[in-house]
Amino acid sequence: MKTKNVIVEDYNLQWKNEFERIKSELLTVLSGKINSIEHVGSTSVEGLAAKPIIDIDVVIDKNFEEVKKALESIGYIHEGDLGISGREAFGYNNKSHLMVHHLYVCNKDNEELFKHITFRDYLRQHKEERDRYSSIKKEMASKYPEDIDSYIEGKQPVILEIYKKCGLNR
Question: pLDDT tens for residues 27-79?
């Protein structure tokens, strides 16, 4: 579900509510089967500009097949790890009642999950870094409105600097 056009918006208070709506639907089939449902990515950081897409990590304890079946029962489609080991992606159809979202399932000890949570929490606690990251995202979206790869590449130096500050050395 990669969009061709790169659209970055100022933070929207509705994103938190939209995450809760998606989480609520997920819990109808995942309750008791998972550790947590984490709102990650830029929409999870109050005040941070973001592409209007909710990123969600479903945290499990080595029961992927059970969780996969439950997600499939409500219309999610397993897409594999998309090149990131231990993070299983799910697409969907017929979810127009929910905001556009990316859904991933990770074991609780997954490195990518750890990065998502650490980065999110650091930005939530460090306004100056959050604002700097917002600026580069807006700048790159303006510079590369139809080139997601260049947009991502342009943000990378700032992301790596923030990774160092929060102890995530790649």
Answer: 999 999 999 999 999 999 999 999 999 999 999 999 999 999 999 999 999 99
Q: Per 3-state DSSP, what percentage of the chain is helix, strand, and coil (rounded to 5)?
A: 45, 20, 35
Alpha carbon distance 116, 110 (integer Å): 10
Q: How far apart are CA 10 and CA 50, in angstroms?
A: 7
End-to-end CA distance of the chain: 26
Residue that the structure tokens 């650490």 belong to? 118
Q: Cβ(15)–Cβ(101) under 8 Å?
A: no
Domain membership of residue 74 (yes or no) is yes
The beta-carbon contacts of 28-34 under 8 Å, at least 24 apart in sequence, are 28/74, 29/70, 29/71, 29/73, 29/74, 30/58, 30/67, 30/70, 30/71, 33/60, 33/63, 33/66, 33/67, 33/70, 34/58, 34/59, 34/60, 34/61, 34/67
Total domains, the chain: 1
In this structure, what DSSP letter does residue 25 have?
Answer: H
The Cα 160–Cα 111 span in angstroms is 16
Domain span at residue 125?
A: 14-165
Confirm whether 153 is domain-assigned: yes
Q: Using CA atoms, how far apart are residues 112 and 104, in angstroms rounded to an integer?
A: 10
